[in-house]
Design brief:
By secondary structure, the chain is mainly alpha-helical. The protein has helices spanning 3-27, 31-51, 77-92, 95-112, 115-124, 132-142, 149-152, 154-164, 169-182, 193-207, 220-246, 262-286, 305-331, 337-349, 352-371, 373-387, 392-406, 413-430, 435-448, 459-469, 475-503; strands at residues 55-60, 65-70, 295-296, 302-303. The protein has a two-stranded antiparallel sheet. The chain has a two-stranded antiparallel ribbon with strand order 3-4. The termini are far apart.
Length: 515
């Protein structure tokens, strides 16, 4: 068989497999009902596991104490009371809910007034479309500097950019989502995740009596290189597999490809001026030594940690609201306050499907956490890896794959690491592997499967966004789109890790591979 025929056959087999995944996934009930059924399954399984008396005892690096977790049944009086009493708070307390709705107030204004459309037309006017994919993926990876902002900004814009360039908008969503979530740990600079995970690692070292403390930069070299590496891998997957598998776009969404008018150019100029003024003001509030948005930490240092976790989303609201308002006012789309409120209302209307889906998704995730099933699965997996008796590179690779597997059952990176770090950091240290290496191996596995687990908080957000461009899209569509990224990131990122180890390169500043 010639090479060309073999490539065509392989491509057809991959496309057929992904179409099968999509068909099976979309033949399932509506995503909202599917989350309801998953919640019912969790309730039933919790009774079965609890009846066996399953429990785990471990040192929790966050709580700084030894804790015991026992499987909790929801199929009894206490469980029934819990499900009824917490249904509302599970929904209103669902982490992405407030984040998405608040940000959408600003994003909705920028979209309703036409600022997004005109801006992207201006950008794409002389752009080479072949570079759109790496730009979108790279922007997604870099967006994790601002925590979850990439889900709300980069992913929607990825769809619009691809559509305006005559490409499939779902491919734009997939590329952006792969960068934002699949490449969540990678970055050229430090993000909020670095000090969070490093703090847990240091606590695990202290609890084990190991006199080593890592700096937040301990994974920087490897993750910076990973940013470029994942951008290349993601681009190849998007262009060679995802878009070919999707085929031509036949949906109802029609981007406005009319030339930018003189009035729109004036609106863009005024919007840019307002954006610069806003950024200067925010910079003054954020970055000077005693800036308003900095808060005192327990170690006596003034940082933006509290602002990045709580105040960033209102900041993003204004980031889009102010230029959107100025643009709309300039071109005459916004004449009175009623028009501004109409823009915000329009954005909220578009989120109605998300609200319904979120209610059921939030119950499923809350039940899974309440039953302790994720913790028990994680701990049992850790026991299995420890019993494997491997060392060196094989141990690291197996640990990466274990982390990727456990990520399917526990969505929070910090919660999993709080369980796993006290077990694996001392164990691998005693086998001669540095804590920095153990931590970065965990981050590879944890990031790679973010994009295929329904337990990931923003999974439902992406499903609803896809349905804006293709009403037939569902969980199966998203799974079939993201599976090639997940598997490729996991395999090739692990290979990069192996090469890094074989070359003996440091993971970060003053962070060797071995002890």
């Amino acid at each position: 068989m010639s090479d060309n025929k073999k490539k065509i056959k392989d491509s057809q087999e991959i496309g057929g497999f992904l179409k099968g995944v999509e068909k099976i996934g979309n033949s399932l009930p509506h995503p909202a009902l599917l989350f309801f059924l998953l919640a019912v399954i969790v309730v039933i399984v919790s009774q079965i596991v609890a009846s066996t008396g399953a429990s785990v005892t471990y040192f929790d690096a966050k709580a700084k104490a030894e804790v015991t977790k026992t499987a909790v049944s929801l199929l009894n009086k206490e469980g029934l009371v819990y499900m009824f009493n917490t249904a509302t708070t599970n929904f209103t307390g669902f982490a992405p809910l407030g984040t998405v709705l608040v940000a959408m107030l600003g994003v909705g204004v920028a979209e309703w007034t036409g600022l997004f459309n005109s801006s992207l037309k201006k950008i794409l006017m002389n752009a080479n479309t072949r570079y759109l994919t790496p730009i979108v993926i790279f922007a997604g990876i870099m967006s994790n500097i601002a925590s979850d902002a990439g889900y709300l900004v980069v992913v929607p814009i990825g769809a619009i950019i691809f559509a305006m360039a005559g490409r499939h908008p779902l491919a734009g969503i997939a590329a952006a989502f792969a960068g934002v979530s699949g490449g969540f740990s990678a970055n050229l600079v430090l993000g909020t995740t670095d000090p969070l995970l490093t703090g847990i690692t240091n606590q695990a070292l202290t609890a084990a009596g190991i006199d080593i403390q890592l700096a937040p930069t301990c994974n920087w070299y490897f993750l910076a290189a990973s940013t470029v590496f994942l951008t290349i891998i993601g681009t190849i997957i998007t262009d060679k597999i995802i878009e070919k598998n999707l085929g031509p776009y036949t949906g109802t969404y029609q981007p406005d490809n009319e030339p930018v008018t003189d009035l729109e150019n004036k609106g863009l100029r005024n919007a840019l001026i307002s954006l610069i003024i806003y950024c200067v003001i925010m910079g003054f509030l954020m970055f000077p030594k005693n800036a308003v948005f900095k808060s005192l930490q327990p170690d006596g240092e003034m940082t933006l940690k509290a602002f990045l976790h709580g105040g960033l989303i209102p900041g993003i609201l204004l980031l889009f609201l102010i230029p959107g308002f100025v643009y709309g006012k300039t071109i005459g789309k916004i004449k009175t306050s009623h028009d501004l409120i109409e823009a915000m209302t329009s954005a909220m209307k578009s989120m109605s499907g998300y609200l319904v889906l979120t209610f059921f998704a939030s119950q499923f995730i809350a039940y899974f956490g309440k039953t302790n099933l994720g913790t028990i699965v994680s701990f049992k997996g850790a026991d299995a890896l420890e019993a494997a008796g491997l060392t060196g590179l094989p141990l690291i690779i197996l640990f990466i794959f274990l982390s990727a597997f456990l990520n399917l059952f526990m969505g929070s990176a910090s919660a999993k690491w709080a369980i796993m770090a006290p077990i694996f950091v001392p164990m691998m240290y005693r086998l001669g592997l540095s804590p920095a290496l153990t931590q970065v191996a965990y981050r590879i596995g944890d990031s790679s499967t973010n994009i295929i687990t329904p337990l990931m908080s923003y999974f439902s957000v992406i499903v609803i966004l896809m349905q804006k461009y293709d009403k037939k899209s569902g969980l199966g569509t998203l799974m079939s789109l993201m599976l090639p990224y997940s598997l490729s990131f996991l395999i090739f990122w692990s290979i990069l890790m192996g090469i890094w180890i074989l070359l003996g390169l440091p993971i970060g500043p003053e962070a060797p591979l071995f002890i």
